[in-house]
Each structure stands twice: as structure tokens, then as C-alpha cells.
């Protein structure tokens, strides 16, 4: 039988020596293997340095949440030192600046397409005339995406709407026909200037005229006093020049007919009426 120590356990000289050696090495007596030091564990300097080297040699293991061991994580699977513009590491859900800009560009293009889609399809005369909320301003807004294309002849309204391109007289004659069908009183006016000939559609009810050159402006109907000279002065001002003559004309079935003309001469303004002699313009200029 082995002799017992003070606590009642058997002991020998060899076992006491072995216990002393194990205690000097930092092991607990009876433990099968050393325990790894936890953060904040107090131990010897040699133990801390050896464990630090061992931990640094092992690559970090990602957890289920996408976090990597040994480095703080932002919560989206990206390292804390990751910044916009840097290549996104594997598992990172953040977008770089280039990819974010591309995504915003696609979203902007989609919104623009949805907003402009109704104005990109071909219009019809029936659609314009049957608009329950039709006004001169609203009518001009329907042509905001039309292109300017100078032509020698006036296009038929259907061709102008289908091609979505034309010039001032294409728009003025179409607007006059549509507004007349809805109960308005339009007047076609043609302004002559050095190097220019421009047509607009004047509406008596609103005391303003529609100009194809202002189809994309915020205020598409230009207010005026209704006289030919005032319309001519405002149109010439938009061209940064002076007007030489202004005429009211009609357009029916492709035939233009001049109703009256006001010319600027050295002696003043002169009005011409078809079938009658020329006479000076009265106080109510341009009115019949």
C-alpha cells in the first residue's frame, strides 16, 4: 500500500517531484492538456508571446454572419477599414463608387423613360381634339419633344405628328385647326424679319400666341395685346432683330390666303388688304 499525503491521497517521492515540475510549467495537476489563454488572462510573458504567435499564424475563419476572426466587421461582411472606391472584398455587400454610380444612372434612365414615354409615341389629331383638359398651353406642351426641321412646304398634320419633326408653320397651322375645333378663335400670323420668316398662332380668348420655338419653355403661351404690330415686335425681339412686315393669313386644305399685311416704311406703318388700296394703320392696328 502506498503512503498517503496530508490530504489523504497516496503519494510517493516521485509523484511529489512530478507535481512540482508540472506546477512550474504552469500546468494544473491532473489536467490532460493546457488550456488556451483567454483575452485578459494573466500569465507569464513567455506564455503570452507564444500564444500570440500561434494565433497570428492561423488564418481568420469567417463566421456565419460573414465576420472574419481577428478583425472588426461593419455588419455587412466588410472589414472596418474598407472605404468607397476600394475593390470590394469577397463577401462584402457594399458597392464601390463606380458600381453605385452605374446603378443610380440606370435608375435615373428608367425614371426618365417612364416620364417621357407618353410624349415619345406618335400623336393623332383625334387624340389632341378629344383631350378633355385641352388648353393652348397644354396643347403646346404636347410638342415639347418635337425636333425642328426647316421645310419648304407645310406638312399635313398627320405627317407632322408621325414624323415628330417640322418647323413653325407646321405647328401653327395644326394648332389653329385643333383649337378651332374646340371652340377657340385662333389667328395665324406671319412675321417677316431680315433673313427670317416666322409663323405663330394667336388665340383671342387667352390674348396670347403659341410659338413653336417656345415649345420647351416653361411659359409656352406668349401674352400680347392682340395687335399685329405687338405680335411682330415680340417675335422679332425673340430673334434679336427688327420686323419689316407682319401678316394675318388663313390655311385651309393646303391653301394659304393672306387676309391683311402691315408693312414698316419710312413714313410709318402701312396696312394692305387684298382687293383694296393700301392705307395707313389706324389706332387699332391689325384689327379688322
Structure overview:
- With 288 residues, this protein is an alpha+beta fold.
- The strands form 2 sheets. Strands 6-5-4-3-7-8-9-10 form an 8-stranded antiparallel sheet, with helices on both faces. Strands 1-2 form a two-stranded parallel ribbon.
- Helices cover 32% and strands 18% of the residues.
- The longest helix is centred in the middle third of the chain and has 24 residues, at 97-120.
- It has helices spanning 13-24, 45-57, 97-120, 125-129, 136-141, 157-163, 168-181, 228-238; strands at 147-148, 165-166, 186-193, 196-203, 208-210, 221-223, 245-252, 255-265, 268-272, 279-280.
- The protein has a domain at 120-280: C8orf32 fold (Roll), CATH 3.10.620.
- It contains 8 helices and 10 strands.
- Mean pLDDT is 74; it is low at 1-9, 26-56, 63-75 and 281-288.
- The radius of gyration is 45 Å and the shape is elongated.
In short:
With about 290 residues, the protein is an alpha+beta fold. It has a domain at about 120-280: Roll (C8orf32 fold), CATH 3.10.620. It has eight helices and ten strands.
Question: Structural class, from secondary structure content?
Answer: alpha+beta
User: How much of the residues is beta strand, in percent?
Assistant: 15-25%
What's the count of strands? Answer: 10
In DSSP terms (H or I, runs of 4 or more residues), the helix count works out at 8
Estimated helix fraction: 25-40%
Q: Which architecture of the domain at 120-280 per CATH?
A: Roll
- What fold name stands as the CATH topology of the domain at 120-280? C8orf32 fold
Rg, nearest Å: 45 Å
Distance between the termini: 143 Å
Sheet with most strands = 8 strands, antiparallel
For this entry, what is the oligomeric state of its chains?
single chain
Give the integer mean of the pLDDT values: 74
Q: What's the order of the H and E elements?
A: HHHHHEHEHEEEEHEEEE
